[in-house]
Amino acid sequence: MATNTSGITLSNIEHFPGYVITRHLGLVQGSTVRAKHVGRDIMAGLKNIVGGELKGYTELLNESRREALSRMQAQALAVGANAVINVRFSTANIAAGAAEILAYGTAVVIQREA
Amino acid sequence: MPPETELGAEYSNPEVPHEVNVSERAPLRDFLRLSIGLGLSVAAVSAIVFFTARLWAPLIPFRYEMAFADAVVEKIGKEPPSSPCEAETRRALQTLADSLAAKMALPGEMAIRVHVGSDKTPNAFAMLGGNIVINRGLLESVHSENALAMVIAHEIGHIKHRDPIVSLGGGVAVALLFSAAFGGSDGGTLAGWALGLTQMSFSRSQEERADKEALAALQAHYGHTSGADEFFAYIVEKYPELARLPAFASTHPSPPSRLQTIRASFPPVPRPLKPLPGCSRENDRDGRQ
Amino acid sequence: MADDLIAIASIIFLGAVGYIFGSLGQRRHYRSIVQREAQYRDILVFNEKLPPAEFAGQDFALVCGSVVMGGDYFRQILAALKMIFGGRLGSFEAMLDRGRREAILRMKAEARRKGARAIFNVRLETSTLSSAERNNKGGLPCMELIAYGTAWCAPSGAEKRAS
Asked: Are strands C142-153 and C60-70 parallel, antiparallel or unpaired?
């Protein structure tokens, strides 16, 4: 199973053929609120005139999502899990140019079936 | 430790470290750091705008300058005339200014508005937005329409070449920046403060150019420039010390040298001059009696 | 000029009040959250869809907890400053963290009233009630945080199985 630097596997499904979940350790969550600086807001505003990808914002949200996941993984690590399953993302805008990204899931200990 | 038995040992909720999701540490220190940062950036941008304004201020469309002048310089021309005589003088001055402006090839959207100031100092100013203020003291110290026309045409010359906005350029630009950034009434207040920091003064070359424009306008309007020197001759006679002040002399062509330039354009034989327009001092005095 | 001074003084006053009472309120709220989290520790939450087989045939019910959180005046100014330069809005993170834990606690309280032992398929949602979008300067962030899931009553014979 693929793991990343923190050693916590992530997945948004909850049943893994060939694996057993030996412990269910409850809800873990990671969230962050970020804003891009005004310069990027202005560039995004200009880009909005012609449409297409707003790179500044894509980058902002990707960075935030990475951080939310790593915060969630920190919680999972602290409760002794090796995976977070059924991961859900939720995005809420707080102000123009600032957004909260939330990631949550259930921390578990998962093992390959013997 | 609460029992985990009911659900079986494999289901539990150990305590999670919630603090990973909160990065607020020292809000007051953050606030100070950010305020200082913002203050410095605003100061830097304002300084850049202030010192480069002379280069691009003349490119600001005149209608923006007019709208801005109306918003900031509220008092100009708003007070009602004190007497019918005063109203007549204002109308006559405006008519004279309009007929001079018609000879000066002003850009299309430029309009000249003449106001009478209550100050007794013999002086006149070109202000932002095509506003010209003629002090009561000036009206009382000249005796012919030609002399008055010279002064008005000189101020129109300044306006034609956008001298007021170039002179105030830095202050106006910073003021406009503030109005754009803060909007509404706050913007107006800050704009007023920024304007207060700058003083209007014209360079020697701006003055000489305005004189040249004025002489051409008088030539076109009256067919000659006789009488154009009256006000300057009066100034030289009444305030001889002006010409000798080093600071004044360095930015203004000294009145004697302006007189020479003006007199060089005179026709060989002096022409008859027109009386002062509007409600004259004698009529005014009669009216009050 | 006098108007400007009054405006500046009121901003400073509101900022100071916001900072002092906002920080006090935040500390008190966190104390209460930590205490109630200990109290409701025995109600387990998971966002897995299916409860374990032991729950088959037990009573279940939808449970929900929600809270609307607003930022204080000082942290709002701080966030507005931060949004010029970009980066993490730490003061809003605390607000949302408190709100979300509060919502989960209220959901657990409802589950406790229904006699439930565990909540499965928990979903967390955030929505903006009023944001700075409408008016870039004066908008107070105001967020609703919701937690909902399906609460399951304890399986019969659990005690037997555990012993």
From this structure: antiparallel
Spatial contact of B155 and B125, defined as CB atoms under 8 Å apart? yes
Q: B–C: how many Cβ contacts below 8 A? A: 79
Chain C: residue whose CA lies nearest to A12: C48
**Burial track C61-89 (b if 16+ CB lie within 10 A, e otherwise):** eebebbbebbbbbbbbbbbbbbbbbbebb
B73-98 pLDDT per residue, tens? 655 556 777 788 888 888 889 999 99
Residue of B nearest to C136 (CA): B182
Q: Which two tokens stand for residue B35?
A: 């305020």
**DSSP state for residue C71 in the 8-state scheme:** -
Q: Collapsing DSSP states into helix, strand and coil, what is residue A14?
A: coil
Q: Which residues of A touch B11 (CB under 8 A)?
A: 23-24
* Cβ within 8 Å, pair A29-C124: yes
Nearest 10 degrees: Cα torsion C53, C55, C58, C64: -130
Closest CA to B90 of B115, B113, B111: B115
- How many C-beta neighbours within 10 Å does residue C48 have? 20
Angle at which helix B27-56 crosses helix B169-182, to 10 degrees, equals: 140
Q: Where are the domains of chain A?
A: 9-35+61-112
What CA–CA distance (Å, rounded) separates A15 from A32? 28
| ipTM of predicted assembly, 2 dp | 0.76
Question: How many CA atoms lie less than 13 Å away from C47 in the CB half-sphere?
Answer: 24
Q: CB–CB of C77 and B37 under 8 A? A: no
C interface test, pick of B10, B13, B186 with most C CB neighbours within 10 Å: B13
Contact list in A for residue B181 (CB cut-off 8 A) is none
Which CATH code of 3.50.50.60, 1.10.260.30, 3.30.110.70, 3.50.80.10 fits the domain covering A9-35+61-112?
Answer: 3.30.110.70
Per the structure block, which two tokens stand in for C114?
Answer: 């229904």
Q: Do A24 and B20 touch (CB under 8 A)?
A: no
Please give the Cα distance from B253 to C123 (Å, whole number): 81
CB contact under 8 A, B14 and A75: no
Mean pLDDT of B242-261: 61
Kindly report the pTM of this predicted structure.
0.64
Among chain C residues, the shortest Cα distance to B185 is held by: C4
Domains and CATH numbers, chain C: 2-162 (3.30.110.70)
Is residue C31 within 8 A of residue C86, CB to CB? The reply is no
Domain residue extents for chain B: 62-166+202-280
* Each residue's pLDDT expressed in tens, for chain C with a length of 163 residues: 577 788 888 888 988 998 999 899 999 999 999 999 999 999 999 999 988 888 888 889 999 999 998 888 888 888 888 888 888 888 888 889 999 999 999 999 999 999 999 999 999 998 887 654 444 444 567 888 999 999 999 866 544 444 3
State the amino acid at position B265 in one-letter form: S
Whole-number Å distance between alpha carbons of C46 and A24: 8
